[in-house]
Amino acid sequence: ISRFEGVTMAPPDPILGVSEAFRADTNDMKLNLGVGAYRTEELQPYVLNVVKKAENLMLEKGDNKEYLPIEGLAAFNKVTAELLLGADNAVIRQGRIATVQGLSGTGSLRLAAAFIQRYFPDAKVLISSPTWGNHKNIFNDARVPWSEYRYYDPRTVGLDFDGMVADIKAAPDGSFILLHGCAHNPTGIDPTPEQWEKIADVIQEKNHIPFFDVAYQGFASGSLDEDASSVRLFVARGMELLVAQSYSKNLGLYAERIGAINVVCSSSDAATRVKSQLKRIARPMYSNPPVHGARIVANVVGDATLFNEWKEEMELMAGRIKTVRQRLFDNLSQKDKSGKDWSFVLKQIGMFSYTGLNKSQSDNMTNKWHIYMTKDGRISLAGLSLAKCEYLAEAIIDSFH
Ligand code: PLP
């Protein structure tokens, strides 16, 4: 008899579990649109050329494997804040930003959640409905209370802007409002610049603290600056805020676990204190972060030639997704005789499309068509090729009717 008899079986992860089921399927037509990872037109994983170049440089230099400081690689922390806010941003010049290297987006969010739990024990976090599934896990495990604000309107397959604003208004003053900087996951629906201004108005009115999750900078529009415009708009208003960053998607560094948590403060003194506490939380959890991904980012962003090459490669990746999105829309519109309006597919942005398929329809996609996706109706267009668009369109139409 095991001492672990009391340990029950955990349910499979709703996103990563999809890949496990996909691997077990032997059908030739199978398609994995579950996980948000970029694939080539041949549906192969892609290592960016700039990443290979940066790694070669690192090898030539013979960088050592000494421990990093708790807050991570200084050169990385510098460039990651600059990439987010723009190198000439006053916040950086005035030393009002606390940046700590994190274990990619997830680890950075988790660090911030622990910080909130410690210093704002009475505050709650508002997250969008729906949101990336792991957000709830992160705040649950950090014992930070959360509730949802309306975001998605199933009637329009668009943004429920009035509901969103009303719910942010109704939240207790001084709440943390979690916002997706761009390419909202899972819906692919972002507020317009005008809507962002109104969201900022309400958040300021209510003395809330914005908490941005930026996992797709550059991947939504193809432009790093444009995709950071939501965050920069809030920063330009002089607001204090948190930003978690990830390089999983835009540099394809999924397994390197490289990202950062940034806290923009109203004084450099506050930033220094906040940073010291973030380090204090990190030390007993994982001591210090891994160096490899941090060096890659520092080399790519810190070198003008590599930086420009990165931008070109990112445009290519974002461009491929846009082409696939268009092809899927064309196939859906041509093949569907029901008169359904599919234009929402084109309005969405980023890696994902939220199809509006419900759970049993999503089950039909998998059971009958061998198309693997999350049960909320989200498909990753980054895992789709032009060649497979027709097949996917047929499956979606069949599953709806
Ligand atoms: N936040 C959002 C909205 C995401 O979609 C993801 C990845 O799917 C992440 C954060 C974090 O990913 P990672 O921990 O790989 O950086």
Automatic annotation (TrEMBL):
Gene Ontology molecular function = L-aspartate:2-oxoglutarate aminotransferase activity; pyridoxal phosphate binding
Which CDD domains does the entry link to?
AAT_like
Q: How does it assemble?
A: Homodimer.
What family is this? Belongs to the class-I pyridoxal-phosphate-dependent aminotransferase family.
Which controlled-vocabulary keywords does the entry list?
Aminotransferase, Pyridoxal phosphate, Transferase
Against InterPro entries, the record matches this protein to:
Aminotransferase_I/II_large (IPR004839), Asp_trans (IPR000796), NHTrfase_class1_PyrdxlP-BS (IPR004838), PyrdxlP-dep_Trfase (IPR015424), PyrdxlP-dep_Trfase_major (IPR015421), PyrdxlP-dep_Trfase_small (IPR015422)
Which biological process, per GO, is one annotated for this protein?
amino acid metabolic process
For this entry, the protein name equals: Aspartate aminotransferase
Q: Which domain of life is it from?
A: Eukaryota
* Note from the entry: In eukaryotes there are cytoplasmic, mitochondrial and chloroplastic isozymes.
Q: What is its EC number?
A: 2.6.1.1
Reactions it catalyzes: L-aspartate + 2-oxoglutarate = oxaloacetate + L-glutamate
Q: Which PANTHER family match?
A: ASPARTATE AMINOTRANSFERASE, ASPARTATE AMINOTRANSFERASE, CYTOPLASMIC
Pfam family membership, one: Aminotran_1_2
Q: Where is the Aminotransferase class I/classII large domain?
A: 30-396
Cofactor (UniProt):
pyridoxal 5'-phosphate
SUPFAM superfamilies reported in the protein's UniProt record: PLP-dependent transferases
